Amino acid sequence: MLTTLLFIAVLAIAVADWVAVAKGWKKIETIAKPMTMVLLFAYLALAGGFGATPLIYFGLGIFFSLAGDIFLMISYARFSNRWFLPGLAAFMLAHMAYIIGLNMPFGEPSPLWAIGIGIILAMTAGRILRRILAGVREKGLRRLVVPVMAYGMVITLMLLSAILTIYRVDWKTSASGLVSLGAILFYFSDIILAWNKFVKPVRNGRVMNMAAYHLGQIALIAGVVLQFAW
Fold it and tell me: What is the pTM of this model?
């Protein structure tokens, strides 16, 4: 019962953040955005515990995501790229933690499926990343080229790790579906953020970014709780 109420609270605070972003309510956004991740961590701890090693890595992922949220909020509020790099680094660490968690224990998906999906994702990510990096250069932010490129590779690997759980016999179908959906939404949210920042403004881009981000994180954590909880 308590875990259900906590899950509802996560969704409610996330929606409050989206509304705050849409309305320009900065004070509410400043509270709701990090609070969503704090409550999601509490849900993970209560519903899943940390008895299974993969859940520890997902806890670390939430922690680094929270740090990234705070850094990016500061960067956005001050219209400065000074805090963007720390935010990027924090989210890269979050994705690395998720990659480790998704691959513990290391499964054995069909090599043919793994290679095929990997190629498709790499080609898609390459096209999107080239356009974003062109925008980074056009804005005179060449020092961000390598970090953004590295981040794009890491989040693509996280997405691949999530999708491949579908083909692993040790994963429940419902759990692998949730983590795959979550990874796709997380990936989509980062594309919107980067496109909005470096290429051209996206209509309602910040709201779409935050909605996809929160729903992605929630789906990921719900999936791993379903897979690894006591």
Answer: 0.92
